[in-house]
Design goal:
OB fold (Dihydrolipoamide Acetyltransferase, E2P); alpha+beta; 35% helix; 511 residues; elongated; 19 strands; BirA Bifunctional Protein, domain 2
Amino acid sequence: MSESEPEPNVEAAAGGLRSLINERLAKTAELRVAGIDPFPPRTARTHSIGAARAIFEQHEADHADDRNDAAQGLTVTVAGRISAIRNMGRIAFLDLTDDSGQIQVLASRRALGDQWPLLEQLDLGDFLEASGPLIRTRLGEVSVQADSVGMLGKSLRPPPEKFHGLTDIEIRYRQRYLDLIANDEAKDVLRKRSQIVSAMRRFMDERGFLEVETPVLQREAGGAAARPFLTHLNALDEPRQLRIALELHLKRLIVGGFDKVYEIGRVFRNEGIGNRWNPEFTMLESYEAYTDYHGVANMLEAALPRIALDVTGLTTVPWRGDEIDFTAPFRRITMVEAVQEFVGVDFRDFPTVDAMEGLLRECGVAIPPDAGWGKLFDELVSERVEPNLQQPTFLLDYPLAISPLAKKTEYDETLVERFELFVGGWELANAYTELNDPVDQRGRFEEQVQLKAAGDDEAEQMDEDFLIALEHGMPPTGGLGMGMDRLAMLLTNSPSIRDVILFPQMRKLDD
């Protein structure tokens, strides 16, 4: 067999699919010949499937003493995708599914009359409407006893086999619509992700925060140590970068007099793809004047149990065979204490690049090439500290070298008032007492520019307009950034970020 010839089973599978598509195309043509539009513009649906089932069950409960009257007057028109067909010649049972649930349709040749031939043209995956009274069959199944049916949309490709579920990970992520059709669990996870975002928004609104929107296209994408995506704004003939954080524009609003602002939006980082990383992801960032990072921590301790309870009904959720308890208060430990606990040293005793490299070698941690002190320290913490922080833990007071936007602590000028919240061994949130000294901020930006010139393409960029804003004065402020995708992963026990993003980035496949 030559390399250009497909594997026999692949060729057979492709031929089998093409045959099925051709059969469905032929049925579509036959429907048109019979005067039936396979893709009509509207439906006469009166109830969602879930609503139809609910009113029938309530009607049954209200007429429990008179079964003969239980379904009188309950005539509905429901619509949905056909998920099962059992045609027995003179009677047929079909299962219809919509976003609210599933219901059986009982169709007979006698009741449908001239519409009966339509059933011969139906396939799994087609959309159908059915009208008739609601009944409960002898087997106890709530059903629509159809006196009319109508085609709503012909499916030209067969759906995935729902009984076994769609298990091919590549197909699940690339063709999310098939995943949603076949896997109720995937649909539930993605529905909960939406509920998590809504619950967070409610929480912030109730605390008096103003939701705002800031630019995606920016001259200098700042606010985080990350590599941006580059683009061009044709109307102005100027380069632009996709934002890597929401921070610097939100802090401009604090300068402008809004005391509490937040945004939930997409940010873009031109970096790796993995179980915890997607090049575009959803961030919550909030900034509150007249508070500090302790106030932000207190806010998170109120928010996370509330959101967990709203979405899951519990404040303790399963995670990788264990449980995470979001009940407040969370553990609080400084970075100095954490490194002493899990590495056995005071990292301030290793102030140079050479010393930190030696510590990493001693700890068996790989040394990134051409890394500065901050990146080396970050590798040490990622490998030796973070995996130990399974229950919600605030890790406080970070080295200044890796925190160019945070205010220095009062007790040690080499540390800043910053925390990261770790849950399940992962960073979930990052917060600062924001640096509001424009002279200090300019100096730190200049240090970042030097790092970028030395080859660190993740270093912060100089943002002159932000510095001008800061020079107009900003009050003490507590700022927060939290990954909504990671929160969704934790609350749904999902091992990959792709499970909680509807359309994750994937490598292009050859045709």
